[in-house]
Amino acid sequence: MIKNELKNYLKAGYPAICVLTQETHRAEQLLPCENWQFFVWDCIQGIRKAGTTQVLDEIRDPVEAINWLSMYTDTVLIANNLHLFLDIPEVIQAIQNGVVRWKGIGCALIMISPVIQMTPEIDKLFTVINLPLPDDNELIDLQKELCTSVNVNINKRAARAAKGLTSDQAETAFAYSLITTGFCSTRVISDAKSQMIKKSGLMEFWEPADIKDVGGLDNLKAFISNRARAYEPGNEHLPRLKGIILVGIPGTGKSLASKATASILGWPLIRLDIGSLKSSLVGDSERRIREATQVINAFGEVVVWLEEIEKVFAGIKSSGELDSGTTANMFSHFLTWVQESDTSAIIMATANDISKLPPEFIRAGRFDAVFFVNLPTIQERIDIIKIMNRKYGSKIPTTYAQRLAGYSGAEIEQLAKDSLYDGVDDAFSALVPLSRVMREEIIALKDWAKNRARPANTQEDKPKDQRKIRQIPNVS
């Protein structure tokens, strides 16, 4: 807990502390602890006692406020937005002068800031600690306070969905949900959280695909549905998914399955285009991918979809020659984040040619499984034909499934669309499947997947071997 951490720092005589948070009012409520008197300063009100609105001294100048702290003992001054004044030489000098005295009189300056933004002159003087966002219990208490006032039952699932919001954001979302729906809706909370993604400008929201629109891939669906149990109440002991890599032939439904995963879990879907995060400015690409992963961590339960990941991280070894190591640095951060980050997000990465990815990307511990998405079996082709007929109003006979052997789901969809103009037979005659155009490459991909990936499709039944009996005419 941050209060205990802060108390230990104060006991040890730490004179300057930076608390990273955007919740200045929440920090003021959580930080005060016994044996020290806490005061709050901002450049509009001046100095007041923490937890009250009564102004004790109308000191608005940051230098005077810092010097004010030196007049007391066992006192802590919480300075809001002091980081905005750290380019002023007098402020820097006041902090440098103050830390020498504060160590001996039990005082400390706590700077509340959303970012680490310090000059070299003082960055070694400050100890940085994070104020974590509200946890499940805090969000439930906040929701309970609002629901009690209007005699509505709380929704613990909505409280968990609000994880990643500040207390003010969560309170606003709960209140808006109560006004618009009459209860705390997880959907409204998710819409409120979408603002995090929109404001970042680094990712985009996508509408999850309906699982009914995914024909076949029963093994993959069962894998995800089975592990979705880890997110149900009472199953916190079960390990949670980190991510899945879908490898396969183009047009076989890898992207659609990634989008449908969000539908299975009932989570929002975010598309992260790592290639678009690259910038020509030195260090900016690395900063942007760090910001993107931080937003995902704060968002909580979400499916993150990465399309054709091999195109982003291909050529890592030659990155230093081509882009001064930018791609390699982004790759390193991404791998560390996938493996070490304590996030509820699930990564769904698709690849057409996994051989272009470095081996460290797919090793155990980073992704939970690598699935190979093959061309649809006959039963899957029947399912896809039914889905496309329903979707487009086409009239492809299910008996066409026999003739569509070697056709991908995307090609069957194209057949459905073309048949509305040209008729089924003519559309079929004009469509050349990728399995024929790139026969050698697809055979090689299938051979690679035999012992290296899980099959996403249900295996097609092979015809049983039967004894052949040849009748010989009786010539007698």
Automatic annotation (TrEMBL):
Residues 453-476 are annotated as: Disordered. Residues 240-377 form the AAA+ ATPase domain. Residues 459-468 have a biased composition (Basic and acidic residues). Gene3D superfamilies: 1.10.8.60, P-loop containing nucleotide triphosphate hydrolases. It holds the Pfam family AAA. InterPro entries: AAA+_ATPase, AAA_domain_protein, ATPase_AAA_core, P-loop_NTPase. SMART domains: AAA. It comes from the Bacteria. GO terms for molecular function: ATP binding; ATP hydrolysis activity. Keywords: ATP-binding, Nucleotide-binding. Belongs to the AAA ATPase family. Highly divergent. This is Uncharacterized AAA domain-containing protein ycf46. It comes from Desulfobacter latus. The lineage of its organism: Bacteria, Pseudomonadati, Thermodesulfobacteriota, Desulfobacteria, Desulfobacterales.
